[in-house]
Write a structure and sequence with these properties.
Radius of gyration: 29 Å
Pfam families: HCS_D2, HMGL-like, LeuA_dimer
CATH class of the largest domain: Alpha Beta
Catalytic activity: pyruvate + acetyl-CoA + H2O = (3R)-citramalate + CoA + H(+)
EC number: 2.3.3.21
Number of helices: 18
Strand order of the largest sheet: 2-3-4-5-6-7-8-9
Mean pLDDT: 87
Low-confidence stretches: 520-537
Strand content: 15-25%
Protein name: Citramalate synthase
CATH superfamily of the largest domain: Aldolase class I
Distance between the termini: 50 Å
InterPro entries: 2-isopropylmalate_synth_dimer, AIPM/Hcit_synth_CS, Aldolase_TIM, Citramal_synthase, LeuA/HCS_post-cat, LeuA_allosteric_dom_sf, PYR_CT
Number of domains: 3
């Protein structure tokens, strides 16, 4: 039977201290609901004594019936004072949270330098503050700040601070590697010592300054800690906190511990990406377990092997964490890559034919020209459908023209687009804040009368990369366009020495792909669809 662990999420508190991360009260409420559905046991919502945003968050969330324990964060009382007169402790106990985490000093250097008080007064601050919070009816947790540095400098004093927290009734004592400089071997040794002398539940809170936060957390759990503190995607101050998206599946799938239910673990990828979107922080494509490339395969030999058995190049089944296997097609692709992608799209492909070889050669030639299909799955699907006679020609482009005018009112762009839909020529004009935006608006304006669903599609990202820097302004560029319809996201690519042409190519691919999706859902009238293949989508 697996050993249960306690998961303490501090994305909404410690995670927001990361550079570039700012969450509104509404953002925090949305994320809290996702974390609760994921099954974490504690959700640290912030410091109700520090800012009005956190006060609003606690006010709004206290009425929600969260399964997790909503936790407020604060520090021990000020030196040479009493808890009853400490305004921060007052806000903490009035927050409506079920639990409170108090941070206190355990490193004698910090007591003398940061607090500028005596060692005995610091111990009194720890004991009295935790006892005060517990007396108010809240569960009290103690974050032993800088514990590992403190232990290495003065183990007797660091342990005496933990003993005071235990005597005050702390439900959990969490050992913090606040500066992130401790090594896994040190973590293991010190946590083992703490577990042997402190008769209280122990937790671990690590930072990633040496890129060891995950390893240090796993070492602490192996040494006897039973609570894990961390953040979604490892957000946090400086180099970040321990990444729960790596820790939870490793503990549960590889080390025999129980963090959340198997069904909840399957939602991990969607939670990670949701938090990334709300925080407006790009998620690393190669993030373990939940990243878009975590189970992506590019080399032909790899793809050939995983088609026989995915265990050949995958350490777990992607679905266990809600992710999926992806096969990339590039200049490194072999026939297995093409076959896998075609099967994924439901195309009837004969692997023995010359067509697959021709497609591979075509892709390699396009990549030599500057195209990149790893990050443009929609363009790749259109290319494969064209190659295997399954292309849907919903519309064709006759021409487009752009004018850009500079006036006293600023720059304006106007695009004229002529397209053909099922034999009917459509001519539209639209303005935009730039030539690409004007083209996008004109194309949509031409198509929306036939396909109203286009109103739900918008560009979510637009990237331009110069491919031949030596050619300066005459250089060839690659444009990647990401589009979404609030349910799905897809990417397309265009390449040209003219940035407008490259952008147009990516835009047309994006619209073509979206209309194929609508067609599958029955939104396109059959008389508007011209197909080159056997299947009329």
């Amino acid at each position: 039977m697996s050993t249960p662990l306690c998961i303490f999420d501090t994305t909404l508190r410690d995670g927001t201290q990361g550079e570039g991360i700012s969450l509104t009260a509404e953002d925090k409420v949305k994320i809290a609901l996702k974390l609760d559905a994921l099954g974490v046991h504690y959700i640290e919502g912030g410091n109700p004594g520090s800012n009005s945003k956190d006060i609003e968050f606690f006010r709004r969330v206290r009425e929600m019936k969260l399964q997790a324990k909503l936790t407020a964060f604060g520090s021990t009382r000020r030196k040479n004072s009493v808890c009853e007169q400490d305004i921060n402790l007052k806000h903490l106990t009035e927050s409506g949270a079920r639990a409170a985490t108090l941070v206190g000093k355990t490193w004698d250097f910090h007591v003398h330098t940061a607090l500028q008080t005596t060692l005995d007064e610091n111990l009194a601050m720890i004991y009295e503050s935790l006892a005060y919070v517990k007396h108010s009816g809240m569960e009290a947790l103690f974050d032993a700040e800088h514990f590992f540095d403190g232990y290495k400098a003065n183990p007797d004093y660091a342990l005496s601070a933990l003993a005071k927290a235990k005597d005050a009734g702390a439900a959990w004592i969490i050992l913090c590697d606040t500066n992130g400089g401790t090594l896994p071997s040190e973590i293991s040794e010190i946590v083992s010592r703490v577990v042997s002398v402190i008769d209280a539940p122990i937790g671990i809170h690590t930072h990633n300054d040496c890129e060891l936060a995950v390893a240090n957390t796993l070492a602490a759990i192996s040494a006897g800690a039973r609570q894990v503190q961390g953040t979604i995607n490892g957000y946090g101050e400086r180099c970040g906190n321990a990444n729960l998206c790596s820790i939870m599946p490793t503990l549960q799938l590889k080390m025999g511990y129980s963090c959340v239910s198997d069904e909840q673990l399957k939602s991990l990828t969607s939670v990670a990406r949701y938090v990334s979107e709300i925080a407006n922080v790009h998620m690393p494509v190669n993030q373990p377990y939940v990243g878009n490339a975590a189970f992506a395969h590019k080399g032909g030999i790899h793809v050939s092997a995983i088609m026989k058995d995915s265990k050949t190049y995958e350490h777990i089944e992607p679905l266990l964490v809600g992710n999926k296997q992806r096969v990339l097609v590039s200049e490194l692709a072999g026939q297995s890559n093409i076959l896998s992608k075609a099967q994924e799209m439901g195309l009837d492909v004969n692997p023995e034919s010359m067509k697959s070889r021709e497609v591979i050669d075509r892709i390699k030639e396009l990549e030599h020209q500057g195209y990149q299909f790893e990050g443009a799955d929609a363009s790749l699907e259109l290319l494969l459908r064209d190659a295997y006679g399954d292309a849907v020609q919903i519309f064709t482009v006759d021409s487009f023209k752009i004018t850009v005018e500079k006036s006293a009112g600023g720059m304006t762009s106007e695009a004229i687009v002529k397209i053909n839909v099922a034999g009917e020529q459509v001519y539209t004009v639209a303005e935009g804040n730039g030539p690409v935006n004007a083209l996008d608006n004109a194309l949509r304006k031409a198509l929306v009368q036939f396909f109203p669903g286009i109103r739900d599609i918008h560009l979510s990202d637009y990237k331009v990369r110069v491919l031949d820097e030596k050619d300066a302004t005459a250089a060839k560029v690659r444009v990647l366009v990401e589009s979404t319809n609030f349910k799905d996201t897809w990417s397309t690519v265009g390449v040209s020495s003219n940035v407008i042409e490259a952008s147009w190519e990516a835009l047309v691919d994006s619209i073509r792909y979206s209309l194929i999706g609508m067609d599958k859902g029955g939104a396109i009238a059959p008389e508007l669809v011209q197909t080159n293949g056997l299947v009329n989508h």
